[in-house]
Each structure stands twice: as C-alpha cells, then as structure tokens.
Amino acid sequence: EYDGERNSEGERHGRGKAYLPNGDTYDGEYEHGFRSGQGTYRFRNGACYIGEYLQNKKHGRGIFFYPDGSKYEGDWVNDQRHGCGEYTYANGDTYTGEWFNHNRHGQGTYVYKDTGSKYVGGWVNGNQEGQAELIHLNHRFKGKFLNGNPVGHGKYVFDIGCEQHGEYIQSEQVK
After folding, report:
1. What InterPro entries does the record point to (predicted)?
2. Which is it for strands 25-31 and 103-111: parallel, antiparallel or unpaired?
C-alpha cells in the first residue's frame, strides 16, 4: 500500500508512505519508484533506519537502531556501514572510527564501558590490528596488535612513571 506523490509515469516520486506486505513501513522521499533522499524505514522486528537513501539502499548519512538496543550513526554506502561512524553496542561499549564494507577497518577507538579502558589504533576487517595503544585506568600499552592481541615489541607505561619494554611472542599451545 502506498500513499504519496507520483510522477507522470505513475512511479512513486516525491514524498510518500509505503506499507510493505512483510509489515515494514517507509516514510520519505522517492525518485522514479526507488527510495531516494531522506527517509525513515521501520522494520517489523523493531529496527529502524533514519537517513539517506539512493536507489532503495542506505547511502549517505544515517542512524540505524538495532532490535538489541545497539545503534550505528554515520556513513553508509550501498547498504553497508562504510566511511566514518560510531557504533554503540547493547552492552554500552562504543566504537568510533573508520568503516569499510560493514566492518571496523582503518583507524578507530573502542571504549569498554565496564572498565573505562580504550583501544586506540588500527583495525582490519573488524579485528584490532596494527599500531595501537590500549589505555587502562592506571597504565597503558603501546605496540602492535594482531587479531586483537599484542604482538612483537611494545611497552607498558605506568602512571607512576615506570616503563616496561618487551616483546610479545606467540607460544606453542600444548594439547
């Protein structure tokens, strides 16, 4: 069901409201039958997207509210989180930084709500990787990470002024 403007060809064009057969609704702008421009899409499962569309896909700036209480606010390209944005997780943790094809990728900051600790540095395909700093309440670690773990040379810096330099090496797991 559609209630809104149409062009001379009868396509949805301009402002309108659509009630989809699956229970979802869209209220926003259309161009030649496609969601294009600013709009609000409400999913039957409780999720909601408020932002820009291009050819029926989330594209531009927008906010997505997920059913679990998490939300993403930032750039979208071709229905994917892509560019810069902030994701607030259901547990209160946040990631602010770069996104590529729906994954944390590039430079970003992850804040752990429970401890107040922060990871500031590189990300590859959603994983902590590359040069980074892991900042805790009374000390920090500066070094490289791979798959979320420190690797290679690094140093701990303690608030009292002490530093501990060393190297992380992967140990063989005995089964």
Report:
1. MORN
2. unpaired
